[in-house]
Amino acid sequence: MKNAVVLLSGGLDSATVLAWMRREGYACHALSFHYGQRHSIELARAAELAQALGALEHKVTEIDLRVFGGSALTADIDVPKDRADRDIAHGVPITYVPARNTIFLAFALAYAETLGASDIAIGVNAIDYSGYPDCRPEFISAFERLANLATKAGAQDGARFRVHTPLQELSKAGIVRLAVELGVPVGRTLSCYDPSSEGVPCGHCDSCILRRRGFAEAGIRDGA
User: Fold this and answer.
1) Residue 100 is part of which domain span?
2) What 3-state class would DSSP assign to 192?
């Protein structure tokens, strides 16, 4: 089995990616981050999902993005609630964490190189993605080029890094259907930006709204 590093947040999308990579035959090394996010309860869910979905190991890396702030997830800024669909689909919201996916993928790249792995997976989506620029296919392609230029494995040893994005072109309903098909315990995933300390979703942030719509369109009951 080939090794792969899978970024795992504890949410529906990343859990589905982990299950997809396992189905593809990869030995998955799950990587999560405690980065100062207000919804750090997601890390407990990530650990649970890593075990349930057969990750070979699960590492949690600590980086404090509160030092920079600039996001409702890492600073004392209110998480937007009850936004209309047209507002969610327009512009980059305040829940965007500056350069987060670039940072996360850089850590995943370092981890992969130590494992002798050339495969990384992330749950980005270009359809229901709330306007985040670091979820676009162009970004993923650019990071792959960087990975092959910036590492010993790529520059000297002939490795060719690939960033797998199996959810890239799926709607949220499509992701829900795939998660159920792959046996993801969807009721244990946490997508909310502003949950209670016990992990109860707020039901009103952009992520909760998109998740609710996805389950409704898929005709599947959300167990969260």
Assistant:
1) 3-218
2) coil
